[in-house]
Amino acid sequence: MAESGGRRIGVAVDFSECSKKALNWAIDNVVRDGDYLILITVAPNMNYEEGEMQLWETVGSPLIPLSEVSEAAVMKKYGVKPDMETLDIANTAARQKSITVVMKIYWGDPREKICEAVDHIPLSSLVIGNRGLGGLKRMIMGSVSNHVVNSVACPVTVVKAPHH
């Protein structure tokens, strides 16, 4: 994934409405022909049944092609269950634009793992949703998007949560 062959645009996805909005925004406003669209997801924990899983906890999964992300059996191995709407958005973008879509899965704290992804992949830019937590929740839980914006070197776009 050399820079000359296309930019590496990361989108943090947790399959929430907010992350779908961020994914759509990235596709409509950032991604262009020749780019790599990398869906970054962070699962809360993982099983240690297989030896390679211990390695993945540190460095994340291999880059998973979109065709495999759509297969439930493959994703079960990673302990992640993407929703159909997110897969549909990604598959439509891959068909309509000349882009390569892959997923990278990490396990642990989303604030830390998304920052690691930016450096390790490395990303040209990142799009992340903002759930719009209230002040108290944000103070207790911490804002993932705020932490990422203040911790990574690449440009970050924060897409606000839809208002209900």
Explained architecture:
This protein has 164 residues and is of the alpha/beta class. The protein is 43% helix and 21% strand. It is built from 8 helices and 6 strands, in the order βαβαβαααβαβααβ. Strand 1, helix 1 and strand 2 form a beta-alpha-beta unit.
Short description:
This protein is an alpha/beta fold.
pLDDT < 50 runs, ≥5 residues: 136-141
Distance between the termini: 39 Å
- Overall geometry: globular
Class per helix and strand makeup: alpha/beta
Radius of gyration: 15 Å
Largest sheet, order of strands side by side? 3-4-2-1-5-6
Number of beta strands: 6
Largest beta-sheet details: 6 strands, mixed
As a percent range, the share of strand residues is 15-25%
Helix coverage percent: 40-55%
Secondary-structure blueprint:
Elements: E1 8-12, H1 17-29, E2 36-43, H2 51-59, E3 64-65, H3 66-69, H4 72-78, H5 84-96, E4 100-107, H6 110-120, E5 125-130, H7 135-141, H8 144-149, E6 156-160
Parallel strand pairs: 1-2, 1-5, 2-4, 5-6
Antiparallel strand pairs: 3-4
Helix pairs in contact: 1-5
Q: What brief labels describe this structure?
A:
164 residues; alpha/beta; six-stranded mixed sheet; 8 helices; 43% helix; globular
